[in-house]
Write a structure and sequence with these properties.
Length: 332
Amino acid sequence: MAELFYDDDADLSIIQGRKVAVLGYGSQGHAHALSLRDSGVDVRVGLHEGSGSRARAEEQGLRVTTPAEAAAEADVIMILVPDPVQAKVYEESVAPNLKDGDALFFGHGLNIRYEFIKPPANVDVCMVAPKGPGHLVRRQYEEGRGVPCIVAVEQDAGGSAFELALSYAKGIGGTRAGVIKTTFTEETETDLFGEQAVLCGGTAALVKAGFETLVEAGYQPEIAYFECLHELKLIVDLMYEGGLQKMRWSVSETAEWGDYVSGPRVVNDQTKAEMKKILGEIQDGSFARNWMAEYNAGLPKYTEYKKADEDHLLETTGKKLRSLMSWVDEAE
Ligand code: NAD
Ligand code: MG
Ligand code: MG
Ligand code: MG
Ligand code: MG
């Protein structure tokens, strides 16, 4: 079972005694920088000259420098730029400015796990990854609560990297909720698998296949949209609140019976065998290598897939129907 750490296990003064650079000011970057600052930590934000986020970070009272200057000033460098550009930012701005005893921090393990970034042996390499989007991380912090984080140490050059990582997690409110210890390998592989097989890939494919089945059988697309996409939120909310049991308690007995007898026919042994293949490609690094090649080639297939799904009847139907539901637009 996982090891859990709370506020009492973490010493905030460790991170308060360091100089932190947060590179990037997107979803995670803004939440980390603002909450660390409010926790009494010396923070600067590193953004390239033309970055649209510069003005926003400054308005919110943070000092902004270039990524290279931030990395040079700081002794804890948190890299929160998008994963596919991290290696470039690291090579250009971070590596030339790393000193003995510095700590390199990440919010996701991809670049370390697949060695797109290879830090020198004289720095700590840590991960603090909140299990929620940055805006929730920041809002919870401001309300005196926190989003659970996972923390990992890949390289412990100074002998106290884990204490440093826990201290950082406390600075963004993570230990108020609870911090789980993991490894870069476990975090990266499970994150990629989850988003591909279940959360994004699996769910999108399931919704599309269900919608297409109904429409091809002659049912109206609007009705198919409600049944296969719109109502999914209700089901997922129930699972989120109380697992499969609460979902089954809430739906009709007919729906529950259909769940038991038909679900395993849709997601069957063949599906699971394919999931194992997907996991294998994540573990052997071929997924990550192929994705970086696609990214560096200018995203040709990515753009093609995106366009094809934007034009799908599911999406055009959804657009029309959502405009009828005033409350849907208002959601965050
Ligand atoms: P984001 O896309 O929201 O923000 C990226 C930031 O980097 C922006 O401020 C952008 O201006 C800046 N940026 C882009 N290109 C740059 C460049 N070449 N040089 C310097 N700055 C550049 O990213 P995010 O979602 O906050 O993700 C950051 C990290 O956090 C990733 O490793 C991601 O896997 C991880 N993470 C994200 C979430 C999430 O919910 N979004 C959750 C956990 C972990
Ligand atoms: Mg994830
Ligand atoms: Mg991910
Ligand atoms: Mg129904
Ligand atoms: Mg029931």
